[in-house]
Each structure stands twice: as C-alpha cells, then as structure tokens.
Design goal:
This protein has 10 helices and 3 strands, in the order αααααααααβββα. By secondary structure, it is mainly alpha-helical. The chain has 2 domains: 127 residues, Ribonuclease iii, N-terminal Endonuclease Domain, Chain A, CATH 1.10.1520; 68 residues, Double Stranded RNA Binding Domain. Helix 2 packs across helix 7 and helix 6 runs antiparallel to helix 7.
Amino acid sequence: MLLIALTHRSHSSPHNERLEFLGDSILNGVIARQLFDRFPLLPEGDLSRLRANLVRQDSLHQLALQLSLGNFLRLGEGELKSGGTQRASILADTLEALFGAVWLDAGYDAASAVIARLYEQMLTAITPGQPIKDAKTRLQEYLQGRRLALPKYSLAATEGVAHAQQFTIACEIEALRIRTEGSGGSRRAAEQMAADRALERLQKS
C-alpha cells in the first residue's frame, strides 16, 4: 500500500489517485476536528476559511518538502526529467495518498494522529483573523526580529521546456553566511522551498 501511495500515474498502475481521493477526505475531517477543538469561539465561516488554508496545495507542499517526500516518489521518465520530484501538485497529491494508505492500513485513529502531528506547527501558529504565514514570511519575521537584513533571492538555474520549466532559486542570508536552494515549477514555489530550508538551518544552528 505504501508503494502504491508513492506511485504516480506516469510510472505504472496501480497508482495513487484512488488513495489520494481517500486521503483528501480524511485530511479535511481531521483538520476540521482540530480547528473545532482548538477554537471553540470561532464561527463556522472562520473555521471553513482556516481549514481551506491548511488543506490547500501550498500547505501540503510545505509538509511534503519537510518530509523529503520527493526522494521516494515513483515517477515515469518524462515526469522525472521535467522535475516532477519537486512539483507542488505531485507532492501534495502524494501526501494525501499517504494519509489514505495509513487510514486503510491502520484505521482512522492512526491516520488522524499522523495528520495532527504533521500539522502541529501550522495549527499552533494560527492566530484567528490572520492568515497562516508561509515560509518566506516566517523567515522575514525571524530576521527582522533579530534586526538582520532580509534574505536575497536569486535565480540559480532554469531547466526544461517552456511549458514545463523547473526553477532553482537561491536564498542568501549574508549576515549569517547561510545559502540554500529550492526548486519548483514556478519561481514562487522555488523561493518558498529555499526559505523553508533556510528556516531549517536556522533552527538547527
């Protein structure tokens, strides 16, 4: 089941799309319950907006990057060459497929615990009425809080054909001598990955 969850349709069949469907359902349910329990005073509309933000592709992509999920994907040759291991849509769908696989294999409680653990940092960071902050924003606030210059982002490389380009962006924090790189199907996605990796370096230092 794990093998299927990590298999993209470009690689072979059975692939992970049915598990993704299942994982999407349990993810929405678990996040809804987490928000319901954590914010007892929030109305339905606010809870719905928070849930939508947490289960959207960008949030799943960030979690998948933290897990280095791209290293374990089974992709067809074409997807591999076009940078599929870092593509936000593929990584997000695969993470949902993994949630579905855990649900089938070990039951609802186990899947719920996995999701709650992965989302703990995002859930803790929620301030009702304010959007969930992405990696670039969190990095900027971290540096500003220490009166350090903001990071510089630059294009390090571009690969692939025009309709399936893969961007590599460098993030440099000169004062701390930190340089990280991120890749993605858009400059924005690559910048987010580079910022996320810089945050990881800062947390370990």
